[in-house]
Design goal:
It is a single chain. By secondary structure, the chain is an alpha/beta fold. Helix content is 29%, strand content 15%. It contains seven helices and seven strands. The chain has helices spanning 15-27, 74-84, 90-97, 103-119, 183-187, 191-196, 241-256; strands spanning 6-11, 32-37, 124-129, 133-139, 142-147, 153-155, 157-160. Strands 3-2-1-7 form a four-stranded parallel β-sheet, covered by helices on one side. It has a three-stranded antiparallel β-sheet with strand order 4-5-6, with no helix packed on it. The longest helix is centred in the middle third of the chain and has 17 residues, at 103-119. The radius of gyration is 23 Å and the shape is globular. The termini are far apart.
Length: 260
């Protein structure tokens, strides 16, 4: 019987991998080896939260994000401490709760929480493999992982947390995350196809949600105070009756809710 500590390998060190690792650190009550496979320097941030553009914003309010399942609002409290400088300004906390902060800031939060969880475990051995996993094969009761520029690794548990999957475009036309979408592909794709490919989100009627589409997940809006900013652009000379009725409806709704 092997007496060595359990080895858990997380393939992917972006948000998904960091969240999985944090969960393991909080739930495994025995000594173990944690291996995180991430070829980039964006550990904890990944593709989704590694951008440096200040206008690349989250699409979820600060108050609704947390990498700790048992602590809702943890990101809000973390962001508040970064900006408040110890003054405990209640207005700032309330204001942050409803904001959409830069995605990079959320990535820094996830990264910090990951290393805090690691430092809190004195019985943990952490190893970060800066390489791309090329294969995972079961050998006996363990798994053998091979990489493009690292030695083969043996693990008891392997957790795939690659999220977006593709690292680069393929000859068949599949796009890597945030690749520019050629105009000719936009013209030939409907809204759900674009969402399934990872390009944004949309609002859909309940009846539409009954139609299954590969890669698309429907989530009901259950917040009583849920809102969305709508920007309309149309040609004033358009004679399309549907456009006129839609614009009139949106104006009436905005006025009735005192948004104009």
């Amino acid at each position: 019987m092997r007496k060595a500590p359990l080895t858990v390998c997380v393939v992917g060190g972006g948000f998904t991998g960091a969240a999985v690792a944090i969960c393991c650190l909080s739930r495994l009550d025995r000594p173990f080896h944690l291996v995180v496979v991430e070829p980039s320097t964006s550990l904890g941030r990944g593709v989704a939260y590694g951008a440096h553009h200040p206008l690349h914003l989250l699409n979820v309010r600060t108050r609704d994000l947390s990498v700790r399942a048992s602590q809702p609002g943890d990101f809000l409290n973390w962001a508040f401490r970064q900006l408040d400088q110890g003054e405990n300004h209640a207005g700032l906390h309330d204001g942050l709760a409803h904001t959409f902060l830069p995605r990079q800031l959320f990535g820094e939060y996830v990264r910090e929480r990951f290393f805090e969880a690691v430092e809190g475990r004195g019985d943990l051995e952490l190893k970060i493999v800066k390489a791309v996993a090329t294969s995972c094969v079961k050998e006996g009761d363990r798994f053998a992982l091979r990489f493009d520029r690292a030695e083969t690794l043996q693990a008891d548990v392997v957790l795939l947390a690659t999220a977006y999957g593709l690292l680069s475009s393929t000859p068949t036309g599949a796009l890597a995350p945030f690749d520019p979408l050629p105009p000719e592909r936009i013209n030939g794709a409907n809204t759900m196809a674009l969402i399934g490919a990872g390009f944004g989100v949309t609002l859909a009627a309940q009846s539409q949600a009954e139609v299954l589409f590969p890669g698309v997940v429907y989530k009901p809006i259950v917040e009583e105070d849920a809102w969305v900013q709508v920007e309309l652009a149309w040609r004033p000379t358009s004679e399309d009756a549907a456009v006129g009725r839609f614009v009139a409806f949106m104006r009436d709704e905005a006025r009735s809710r005192r948004l104009l």
